[in-house]
């Protein structure tokens, strides 16, 4: 049984609280939030003690592991505190607003020797994980071409976007991680192209809403990632990997399986309307993998350094967007 | 808030307990089982008071509704007791081992005026319900031909089958109900054909493991239902309805969406290995529909009499299996 | 090189003329029709000598094989004439209007020793043939359940239907043959149910437009065939075979592969509008198989007797439609 | 009736001869080849007079239109000769080995006023054309992102590749044309990345076998094209266009529709083994469109200048491959 403290009781904190409560190997003992009433709302439904005193969440006599689901600017501080207390930590991404800060905190945490994981939940998507298993077992030979689509149904609020760091750092970063994880290689260079097609306001702060990044792996394999903020047809996520002897695809997902035939065609259930329902099961699966690592004393399924590397690719991609050149990734 | 007593803490009782605990409009107050330790196992996880005193479950001062998930031979007694206490009741099917007993208890309960529902959970399958909605909105015109497949992955234990009443009463009965529900018509006649292809032991008690039933609706529309106890490829459930202007299909369901392309073909995720994972969400949806009916004082979404009618079709189908003749259904 | 005479220059004769002309092992030497101008229309496009003198088509010094594509009531006479002349013969189905006449002519032709084939073209459908290959190679184990759908887009003219012999003899007979061919077994009994849902005029001559037949094979395996004269969504043909270890399906066919995603669903290319485009390639494939049999001196890929057996099943099915009983098939 | 001369009786010439013979509005009168025996082989099967005298093919008293299917280095000369003779011309691509030569001949032909078409046959693929129709009718709103895959099953002979001009000029050029044609816009810039993953010999002459090109349209819409010389799973061609309100896809094509279900997954018919069977119907469709333009005196469905523009994009893409920069396309 692993005793957990949850840091942060906002939207994503509530998702994690529900998964912590449902995991049979987890005891949710503390929920911390600067706003005590928010913490209380979660402990009322999922158990544990609410607190607005941060030190309650980092008390090694009561807690084995900390789940950091607070706002991005406080991640680094909470990671350090977990390291100081010798507690295992599962942390939402990104680890820090800038790559420099993130690098600093990762080195700090690594020095402490605690088990730490960045919550790259998409690695735990059932279909993506199945795709990787097929590749790892040699099902398609050596990887030669990867395509990933990351397409949200609607533009997030412009106020959110303004401070997000840009589409490649905020949205595509998940897929930069998937790329490394699936291929087992660190991209050497990246070329990115982007446009503002949805809301001209993005131009004001140098962001784009539709972009394409092409990465080159050390083996020469190529990776294409398209990122779209607003589709007209729901949430669209898809991975396709071509190897020397075959191809494997984690297909678009629909929440239903109904088809209607008429003289004008066949109409089938569309894609998920939003990203959350599609992605929801991955949070519980990521948590379960972290808990298993703790119980079996095996390495973190997503070391903090993986978060750094994904951020490094995002930096190079963002630079390429400006320069119109292929940029080398500096890890 | 509806206060519920759960009667029966076996496998299916545990499923219902979890759904009762998760439904925000339900307060699970009592779990009754003849074996108190089984009741306790559920209340420990899902809340409520365990008891082996049946009268605790039918106390109107504490309970608004009873969920009957006990063994089949006690359903009738529990239904009567709920009627006597004036409690709403949601009951597992079948209502009683024989049609005669079922008819008697349904009339008793109807006379009492309580809200009562038979747990025809497949009506609440997201895809089947979507299919019905399309039909009800005129999407395919008048129904002309219906096909339903009910195919389990493996033969249930022969000891279970021996007392099950036969494949048509035990397995196909769910689809007899779906047929009535989808078409909004009561079949007038049925012809059934069956074989023993999996285990010759079934011949000893007159059962079959593979069968086909053809029903005729009052409109002349035809319905084919195939029932298979053991496929070699997982759990296979599928409904197709052809109307005068189109066709709608609730397709086979896979738990994943991965496809692998090679020179020998395209391999995609197969069907669910078992029936339970496929059908699981329907239990919570059926419960939610019952609770909504209670809260909005609207009619039962599956009156007990619907259970009777499905049983009547099963009787006629079973008779046809023996006679080799098309048999009229007597309601 | 096989020298062919074509008997009959109507719609289906023109289809065969085109295939004869395109087959590199065939020399189309004569086209016979009672109406010389129709014969001429074909020889103008596809070569050969037009004639309205039947004896030209059965002259062994000029002709090796005869393709009988004349009207049904003359098939038997042309078959006998081919037998008398010692010519190989490929004949459109049915062999004769009644089972008795058909039996007589088959015995006559068999006695002559010529190579004769009934044009069961659906056996040569690429997908159906692939399905059979998988079954024959043991891909699904022993056959347990077969489903076939035969659904035309629109009701043929009532004048045609009046003399067609009824839906089971006219339409379903192709699938009775497919059933025998796929399973490699002769059905022992059949139960059929039918309705008039499209045009009440059919009631006047005892026909139906929507029907279901259930056949039992000697192994106990069950076969369902639905036959529909008028769908609202195009031409729909589909075969599914379940065995003891798996299932194989020759799926519905679309003439295109376009999908459109929107917020209301995914719209894909519908089915073929008519039967002819869907079935067209099977005629050339059937001819090619016949020619190969001639050239390699191997047995007919569809002996005339197979035509008889399919007709015998149709007779029993038609009887069942009237009696409401399962009927034994008499071969 | 349009009288055609066919120039070139090699592999692709034979394909065109068959289509010319089958087109009811075409009279194939002359087949020219420097090797008279090759011309004869075609006229023997498809009609017309064989010749090795080029002037027979450009005689306006006998010929209305010329189909140029000769070797690439003679295309320009044949185009000029058709222009001089005032004959309509349908020409295989590319129009000339270099963009400069191609520009020169296009201007020469345009000045002559003849109807001229470059044989961009993929525009006439049934599914691609359907996709374009949906877009043109506003089915997905304004184009925002296009993805095209061009993937051959096996590496062409290295001797062919050595003189092909490189993957982007030789293979991707078809898709540069499709991009312009679908979007109705001329790309302003292109960035390309490529690798040698299949045969190191390509490095010797600066070619790649796996590449990705990203184009930017004047509207800001982005286009990704991946080009692969050797898949391990057959011929793979696919177009996907996302617009402001939806997405449309011309899907991968299989030559069959069989699915086999087992406990380990669902195996379906794979892709076409080679490009030719997949693309074959487009040649006849392109010819038909040309003939229709002649008969109805409407503009060429693919003016020669379109060939130039596609070549211009290929030049810029090839330059980007070397420079690592986004390159502007110069038309």
TrEMBL record, chains A, B, C, D:
<comment type="similarity">
    <text>Belongs to the Gfo/Idh/MocA family.</text>
</comment>
<keyword id="KW-0520">NAD</keyword>
<keyword id="KW-0560">Oxidoreductase</keyword>
<dbReference type="InterPro" id="IPR036291">
    <property type="entry name" value="NAD(P)-bd_dom_sf"/>
</dbReference>
<dbReference type="InterPro" id="IPR000683">
    <property type="entry name" value="Gfo/Idh/MocA-like_OxRdtase_N"/>
</dbReference>
<dbReference type="Pfam" id="PF22725">
    <property type="entry name" value="GFO_IDH_MocA_C3"/>
</dbReference>
<feature type="domain" description="Gfo/Idh/MocA-like oxidoreductase N-terminal">
    <location>
        <begin position="3"/>
        <end position="120"/>
    </location>
</feature>
<dbReference type="InterPro" id="IPR055170">
    <property type="entry name" value="GFO_IDH_MocA-like_dom"/>
</dbReference>
<dbReference type="Pfam" id="PF01408">
    <property type="entry name" value="GFO_IDH_MocA"/>
</dbReference>
<feature type="domain" description="GFO/IDH/MocA-like oxidoreductase">
    <location>
        <begin position="129"/>
        <end position="248"/>
    </location>
</feature>
<protein>
    <submittedName>
        <fullName>Inositol 2-dehydrogenase</fullName>
    </submittedName>
</protein>
